[in-house]
Amino acid sequence: MNPAHVLQRHAIGTPMQDLLRATREQEGGAVFGPEKVPTAALPRPLLDFDGVSLEYATDQQVVRATHRVSLSVFEAERYVLLGPSGCGKSTLLKAAAGFIAPREGQIRLDGQAITGPGPDRIVVFQEFDQLPPWKTVLGNVMFPLRATGRLARAEALERAHAVLEQVGLADFANAYPHQLSGGMKQRVAIARALAMQPRVLLMDEPFASLDALTRRRMQEELLALWETVRFTLLFVTHSIEEALVVGSRIGVLSPHPGRLRAEIQAHEFGLGSSGGPAFQAATQRIHGLLFGPETPHP
Ligand SMILES: Nc1ncnc2c1ncn2[C@@H]1O[C@H](COP(=O)(O)OP(=O)(O)OP(=O)(O)O)[C@@H](O)[C@H]1O
Ligand SMILES: [Mg+2]
């Protein structure tokens, strides 16, 4: 079993511990606290947010997007950041990508502070127009592989074909983005990201602009891909259902500025469980955490 699945939360502040403990006691164990942590057995997190406050400075004011967020993502986890609009989910992802620096705290990859973007962290965005339209599907997947200078053309070509096969787009290698549906474009964006073999795949509401059926199919495909490749995923959504389906663990953020309210184990849920009682109970629990009363913060 992936050790991340049996990990317990650690290193969180006292009010959060109280909330987690109380919630766990009420709800029968899916929200977890620090006292069960076998600290010595914990592997080092792959991606570590340590007291991360993020801000945007405009001419008029400074906007605090997140406040002292601490969370750890372990190898091969599917960690979902869930929270209401404006709580700083995208900002956390951009900071992990290295596009913005924390005002407070640190984000580390493999124990090393992140100081800028790198090929070890690739972002898939929500928008369908993230693919250069003048490049074919194959060209789009090849481009970053060649641009980083890591692979010779033949190797890049081989890897691009392999990953297009994995996402079911082998027959569309020579198509242009405008010839594809929204869902197919997202698959190309995912293929392009996976081809880079990043340490962490960062996804910012990648399926939010898709119709409900396509969105579900994309979730299914993403989980199937994960079963094959076992990549580490940090996935942003504001859909509770999507968080439970896609995530193995969920970080629930408070409204603006985002603070980590709780972490919830979700690996027991998949696409098949979305109507079931346990799924409904988890949905209700998260709903309460998102929209329930505020708790004191450090
Ligand atoms: N470029 C920017 N300049 C100034 N403020 C910004 C900027 N981008 C985001 N913000 C502010 O930071 C906060 C967090 O924004 P962010 O985009 O991270 O939220 P989000 O959780 O991703 O929301 P959504 O679910 O709507 O995508 C918001 O209050 C937003 O107004
Ligand atoms: Mg966002």
Quick rundown:
With 298 residues, this protein is an alpha/beta fold. The protein has two domains: 6-12 and 42-120 and 198-291, P-loop containing nucleotide triphosphate hydrolases (Rossmann fold, 3-Layer(aba) Sandwich); 135-194, no CATH class.
Can you offer a commentary on this structure?
The protein starts with 13 loop residues before the first helix and ends in a 7-residue tail after the last helix. It has two domains: 6-12 and 42-120 and 198-291, Rossmann fold, CATH 3.40.50; 135-194, no CATH class. It has helices at residues 14-27, 89-97, 137-147, 153-166, 182-195, 212-229, 240-246, 277-291, and strands at 47-57, 62-73, 78-82, 104-109, 112-113, 121-124, 200-204, 233-237, 249-253, 260-265. With 298 residues, the protein is α/β, with parallel strands linked by helices. A six-stranded mixed beta sheet has the order 6-7-8-3-9-10, with helices on both faces. Strands 2-1-4-5 form a four-stranded antiparallel beta sheet, with helices on one face. Helix 3 crosses helix 4 (153-166), helix 3 (137-147) packs parallel to helix 5 and helix 4 crosses helix 5. Strand 1 and strand 2 form a beta hairpin. The site of magnesium ion has 3 residues, from helix 2.
